Amino acid sequence: MIFNLETADKIALNLLEINAIKLSPNNPFTWASGWLSPIYCDNRLALSYPAIRDFIRQELANVVKKKFSDASIVVGVATAGIPQGVLVAQELNLPFAYVRSSAKAHGMANRIEGHIEKGQSAIVVEDLVSTGKSSLAAVDALRESGINISGMISVFTYDLPIAGKNFHEAHCPLISLSDYHHLMDVALKNNYIDNTMLQPLLDWRKDPQRWSEVRK
Questions:
Q1: Which one of 9, 51, 62, 64 is least enclosed by Cβ atoms within 10 Å?
Q2: CB-based contacts of 44: which residues, under 8 Å, 6+ apart?
Q3: Largest alpha-carbon pair distance within the chain?
Q4: Under 8 Å CB-to-CB from 70, ≥6 apart: which residues?
Q5: Which helix (H) or strand (E) holds 22?
């Protein structure tokens, strides 16, 4: 779900302008999963642009205020969700913690870093949501530690059908500042793509795995 249509368009344009999002259906990128993809997204670049960073912080905080006002702690998902989570926690004057992808192999062997208390309601912060698998693994870790999940917020989501299914089954609401649909509209209007590129990009979102397999 998108929080605000105007914000969704602005975030999409910002990410294109700073080259945080690259679109290349004819020369696809290879994801860590091995899938070929016509889109590559590195929202961490937004942290280097103060005006964009401030806007993202303020809008994520607004989502929490209006949709997840019961949250008593902000939790980032390592690694890209950590800086965004810290900014949101600072804006809202709330405690902050973060969840590692796996337990630390030394010291206290923590999976969750920071002070948490059972019964707290957490708003989880992500930078980017693709399938939702790694994001929801963090949610599971928090629940196992006795934390209630108010929901998750993210800067951007590909809004893949599998992600919608995963978040629904996990009973975890997700609200993003922008998504793939708005990105396509903004990219076309601002000449980042043309009509010949649009259909392959739309086809990818419907079934990323099949799109990848056909092109390998």
A1: 51
A2: 20, 80, 83, 127
A3: 54
A4: 121, 150
A5: strand 21-23
Read off the amino acid at residue 127. Answer: D
Show the tokens assigned to 28. 């696809």
Q: Which CATH number fits domain 5-215: 3.40.50.2020, 2.60.40.420, 3.90.190.20, 3.30.2010.10?
A: 3.40.50.2020
Residue with tokens 């902050």: 96
> What is d(CA 141, CA 202) in angstroms, rounded to the nearest whole number?
34
pLDDT digits (tens, 9 = 90+) for 107-148: 445 799 999 999 999 999 999 999 999 999 999 999 999 999
Does a cis peptide bond (omega within 30 degrees of 0) precede residue 79?
yes
**Residue 27 DSSP class:** S
Average pLDDT over residues 41-59: 98
Q: Which of 1-10, 98-107, 108-117 has the highest mean pLDDT?
A: 1-10
Residue pair 17/11 in contact by the 8 Å Cβ criterion? no
Q: Is the pTM of this model over 0.90?
A: yes
